[in-house]
Amino acid sequence: HQGRGIGQLVMNGMIDHLRIRGYTSLGLYTDYSNERAQHCYRQCGFALTEQLEQRMSNGSIVQRCSMERSL
Fold this sequence. Notes:
- By secondary structure, this protein is an alpha+beta fold.
- It contains two helices and three strands.
- The chain has helices spanning 6-20, 35-43, and strands at 25-31, 47-55, 61-70.
- A three-stranded antiparallel sheet has the order 1-3-2, with helices on one face.
- A hairpin with a 5-residue loop joins strand 2 (47-55) and strand 3 (61-70).
- The longest helix is centred in the N-terminal third of the chain and has 15 residues, at 6-20.
- The model has no long low-confidence stretch (mean pLDDT 95).
């Protein structure tokens, strides 16, 4: 279902729901290599705030992105 705008539709619905509930900001993490997800999040108003390394439960280290947006 990639490239059909479904992720953006769902994300924007969640953003509207959180805004109605009084939240003022939203943050998330995604893998640095997941460019499709980052593109979707940027289309929804998120900005990259940090690049970091995260140790996973299996011991591997993954490059991650922190992204945030105000509501």
